[in-house]
Amino acid sequence: MEIFGNDITLLILIALMVSAFAAGFIDSVAGGGGLILVPSFILAGLPPQLALGQEKVVSTLGTIAAIRNFILNKKVIWSAVATGIPAGLVGAYAGAQAILYFDPETIGKIILFMLPFGIILSFLPKKNSNVKDVEPINTSVILFGVPIAVFVIGFYDGFFGPGTGSFLILALHYLLRFDLVSSSATSKLFNFSSNIGALIAFMMAGNVLYMLAIPLVAMNLLGNHVGSSSAMKYGEKLIQRTISISLSILMVSLGYKFLF
Q1: How confident is the model at residue 111 (pLDDT cuts 50, 70, 90)?
Q2: In which domain, by residue range, is 123 found?
Q3: Whether pTM exceeds 0.90
Q4: Potential cystine with 129: which of 151, 172, 179, 206 (Cβ 3.0-4.6 Å)?
């Protein structure tokens, strides 16, 4: 398979398929699958713009498996979805527009500074994290807290992107006091909608390789299925460990990008 003069050998294709599976697993549990996919595509010889477009088509379709599992097991907080999705769409659009006017290195350094706090937060104990009734009592949080949080994170997703899923989980967990499994499930719908908006833009710009996407989407779907099933089976401990690994990878990546 030839891409811009570079051949995608069978070995490289297999490596990308493994990366797609790993990205799907991590993304379904704690977010951050793009931290694996984008560097993998660049190392395979794809230009950065094409790598970003390819990551979106793989992760967008791959997320369907995780969403299906979480919905079937009634882990999604639908009241939060109703107010969060519109805010996420608007935030992501605003972020994509803002990147044309703001210095991304400054934002990257701010995010790099905040990531250690996110890792610490993911390990803090939370009251009533295992309650069966996960519907929030305080409706003002649904009407105001969720849209504000998802708008801000959606803005980041459109502006830069990596780690959006992890930030969504942390926001839902600590703003709404949902258990981590429900937070992970609900965040997938927010992230899915923002991915669709970005994917349409990349497709219109011709930055998607459909033939390469087919096997990678299949592996990403499998990774999302295994990851979401594992999250529901092993609960918060798996999510805490996975989200800390995901955020740590993001912190190292951003540190290398913005400090060296």
Answers
A1: low
A2: 2-259
A3: no
A4: 179
